[in-house]
Design a protein that fits this description.
Blueprint (H helix, E strand, L loop, with lengths): L6 E3 L5 E3 L7 E7 L8 H12 L4 E7 L11 H12 L4 E2 L12 H9 L3 E4 L7 E4 L5 E5 L9 H7 L1
Parallel strand pairs: 3-4, 4-5
Antiparallel strand pairs: 1-2, 3-7, 7-8
Length: 157
Amino acid sequence: MTIYDFTAKDAKGNEVNLSDYKGKVLLIVNTATGCGFTPQYEGLQALYNKYSEQGLEILDFPCNQFGHQAPGTEDEIVSFCQTNYGVSFKQFAKVEVNGANESPIFTYLKSQKGGFMGRKIKWNFTKFLIDRNGEVVGRFSPTAKPESLEDKIKGLL
């Protein structure tokens, strides 16, 4: 099994096959619009602007599990991100990342990189880096700013 075996609904409700991203470097992030880390959208967009033509894709999965910090609808979240941070990378429907209703994508990501809290995701803006072969090569805490991942991303591109 690889990341390419999964599908997810995008923010418009369309089913997206992650196999569409084969050959790309992926940064998968669980996000929230009302979180202390929300300004990281700016850094994520800067990375996307700089490296998308070389093969970087950022996949944004809003999550309302931590302090109810992503309470809006998908349309409201997309509008907020575009208006405040100029987000142009792919945004998906809200997911849960821990517990009985967690997204199978995050179950898989956590199984590949357990991280600093075992398998559980600690908070919004946990980041998973996937290489061009679909291998999960890194997991980064919410406090890791997107720009701190730039050298690792460049190395994979």
